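TL;DR need structure tokens for one chain.
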Amino acid sequence: MRLFYGIADEKAMSVQSNIQKEQKRIEKQLSELDSRFDKLLNLHLEGAITTEQFKHQNERNAQQQQELITKKAELIIALEERNNLTGRKEAFRKEVERFTDLDINDEQVLKQVLQRLIQTIEVFEDGKIFISYRLSNPLPPNLGTV
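>> reply
TL;DR here they are.
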């Protein structure tokens, strides 16, 4: 079981690291857009480009900047969701450990415990399975204490 959690933690850390790298990349691009605007403004002030050219390039910059800001906000939300998931994952890990520590020989009791642990199971056409777990005390009261 610990190997399973180790793999899950490793995957979660990898995803979080990728999100953070993407966030840094976006921040760098936003900085480059600011620099590009400064250069564009200088060219306009020096008369090297027309007001129409300045407006056109500035609109493109503003659109790119807005897209990057939106993506950055989505990444921030994804990181927050990952942090919330960490707490839920830890609660689930504890519940599973409580479950695996039980010695249940009665098939009916085992079935009841599983029904309390698993909320829904979805099987998709491509064969993938999604299991939604109950994380708030899935064990019956007389089995909940280990």
